[in-house]
Every structure is written in structure tokens, then in C-alpha cells.
């Protein structure tokens, strides 16, 4: 379930962290769509080619700026491989594995705790929709992917709040398998069940 | 849907607000169970009888300290009257009516925005479970009321985050009736459907 950690790359740690700081500030204030590799490079006082060299695409840069301990795009692979009809359970398995792991979920918890601040809200909204909900909805080939994935997101983020943040019992200490078994059908209904219109 | 607002009561506004401040501090640091009318009275430098006179029971005092614009216990009346088999839709109707109203939901939004701070977490946890989830689960006479209502709560709080706080589309601008129609079956499943064990 754990994606490989990014190793520390050689050289120029100051330049790297200047780029990451600029990227985080840009994504937080202007959003993913309103931020370019070029604008991040300018803010960090480096050439855009250097940003690409260190971090890859704009998406890669965004993931790096979030300072997660797993790449959400890689974490979603088993969900996509499961296919639309099994994605509910696969998604719950990934979700519980990530959030029940104190180390892996640490940066995610920090993000959720900052939910009251507009910059963090922007990062959460973009991170959640751009990195997780959007690509998974598309890859699964479901109809109305944005709407269905927003419903899925509403259940998952609520589970984050109740089980992990507020620690409301009996959900807080429920065995992971029981959490999966309880919520997988709900997610599956959102993904492939009938939707009222 | 809107419960009557509490009118301003005559006399001693300083004493009233001293009691409310002490109550809020007590509930936030010691929780609902760990706070007594007596301890609030002592912190405010008044007699316990005066607290009862101004605010009623400890539950009433807790509701007053939350400074909501509706009494959650009254707001839940239509849900209880609907009965267990119809409670999913009734609960969604109350939820959307309250949260779609900017004025009524203002203090609730403030509470959710403070979710990162432990005192507010304590108020949210107790307010949610003591005032809403606990009594409704009991009144509906469902089995495993704490577990079922925690599942219900996980979906509702997630909807708060996605629709109202982060405003993720298309959920943020979805018509209220469609939100009710989409989520009522999910809540109903949590309330009266089969639960894995």
C-alpha cells in the first residue's frame, strides 16, 4: 500500500527548497490551474528548465509541494486496476491503510487540521480533486465522474473527521476490516449505482 | 425548519455572559461529561442555583454556550417524528435546510473552521454526539444506535466539508432537493440497513 518514498536527490538543497516554497505559495494562493512552472520558477529566481529538471511536470511539482509521504497517484493504482465494479472496496482498502498508518498519514493530518485557512483549503481542494478524485473517476470510465467522485469524497473526508480527527467512538477504534466492509458498499453505490437527477 | 431564537432575557447581562464564558471554557477543556453546573458556577463566581435559573439544565447550558442559532434538539424533532424507516430523508432535509441558510449556519461554520483546535474538537465531538447523534439514535429505537449514528455523522460532516467548506463542484451548487435525494438512501442504509460485523 505504501508508495516508495522519494529519496533525497543530490545537490543544491537551497535551490530545491526555494522552488518548493515558491510552489507551495503559488498553489495555495492561485490554485493548481492558476499556477505555472514558469511562475514558480520566477518566484524562486531560477530557470523553468531547472524546475522541470528537479521535479518533473507541474503535477509532480504539486505532489512534491504537498510534502506527502506517498504519491497519491501511485496509491490509487490498485483502485483503478480493480475496475469500476470493485473500486468501492479497493478504495476503502487504500484509504484505511493510509490513514491508519500514523507515519504515512502525518502530512495528511496536518493538511486536514489546516482546513480552516483558505490557502490550505485551496491545496486540499486541488489535491483531492486533481490528484485523486479526477484521475480515478476518469480511469474507471464511470458516467458523471465529477459528481460521483465528489460523493465518494464527501464520505471519505467525513470518515477522516469522525474516525481520525475527532475520534468519535465506536468508529475511532473499529477494526480496519470492519470499516472497509461498512463503507465499501456506500462508495460502490456512489460509483456505479443509480443517481437521482 | 428554523427553531425559535432565544429572546434576550432581562437583567444582569454581565452575570449571564460570565456564566456563558465559564461554561464554554469548561466544556471545551473538560468535555460535557467532565463539566458540572456547579463547576461552571464556581468559575463564574455565582451560585449554582443562578445558573439553573438563567439557563436550565446542564444540556441547556451547553446549547447556550455553543451560541448556535437553533436548538439542535428542537431541530431534530421532525427526524424523530418521521420514525426509523423515514429518518434518512427527514435528517437530510433538516441538514440541508440548516446548512444552506447562511445565517442559521454561521455559528456552525465557525465551529467547523475551528476543528483543528482541541477545545473546539471537544465542543464538536460532544455537541454532535450528545445533542444530535445520541438522542436521535435512542429516540428512533434502532439497534446499535451509537455505531449507526456515527456512520450517519461521518457522511454528514463530510458533506459539510465538501459542499460548504471546500465548495467542491458539482456538489457545492447542487440543488438542495438533489442533495437530499442522493444522500437520504445512504443515511437510511446506515440507520436501518444490514451492518457487517
From TrEMBL, chains A, B:
Key words, A-Z: DNA-binding
GO molecular function, a single term: transcription cis-regulatory region binding
Pfam families (UniProt xref): TetR_C_16, TetR_N
Name of the protein this chain belongs to: Transcriptional regulator, TetR family
The keyword DNA-binding is annotated on this UniProt entry: yes
InterPro entries: Homeodomain-like_sf, HTH-type_TetR-like_transc_reg, HTH_TetR, Tet_transcr_reg_TetR-rel_C_sf, TetR_C_16
DNA-binding region: 36-55
Domain HTH tetR-type: 13-73
PROSITE patterns associated with the record: HTH_TETR_2
Amino acid at each position: 500500500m505504501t508508495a516508495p518514498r522519494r529519496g533525497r536527490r543530490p545537490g543544491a538543497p537551497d535551490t530545491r527548497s526555494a522552488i518548493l516554497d515558491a510552489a507551495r505559495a503559488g498553489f495555495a494562493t492561485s490554485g493548481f490551474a492558476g499556477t505555472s512552472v514558469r511562475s514558480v520558477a520566477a518566484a524562486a529566481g531560477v530557470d523553468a528548465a531547472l524546475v522541470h529538471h528537479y521535479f518533473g511536470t507541474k503535477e509532480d511539482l504539486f505532489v512534491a509541494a504537498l510534502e506527502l509521504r506517498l504519491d497519491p497517484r501511485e496509491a490509487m493504482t490498485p483502485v483503478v486496476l480493480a475496475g469500476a465494479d470493485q473500486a468501492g472496496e479497493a478504495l476503502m482498502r487504500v484509504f484505511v491503510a493510509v490513514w491508519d498508518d500514523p507515519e504515512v498519514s502525518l502530512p495528511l493530518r496536518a493538511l486536514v487540521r489546516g482546513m480552516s485557512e483558505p490557502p490550505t483549503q485551496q491545496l486540499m481542494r486541488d489535491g483531492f480533486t486533481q490528484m485523486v478524485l479526477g484521475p480515478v473517476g476518469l480511469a474507471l470510465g464511470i458516467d458523471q465522474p465529477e459528481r460521483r467522485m465528489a460523493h465518494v469524497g464527501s464520505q471519505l473526508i467525513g470518515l477522516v473527521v469522525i474516525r481520525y480527527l475527532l475520534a468519535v467512538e465506536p468508529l475511532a477504534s473499529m477494526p480496519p476490516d470492519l470499516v472497509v466492509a461498512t463503507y465499501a458498499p456506500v462508495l460502490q453505490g456512489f460509483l456505479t449505482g443509480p443517481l437521482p437527477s
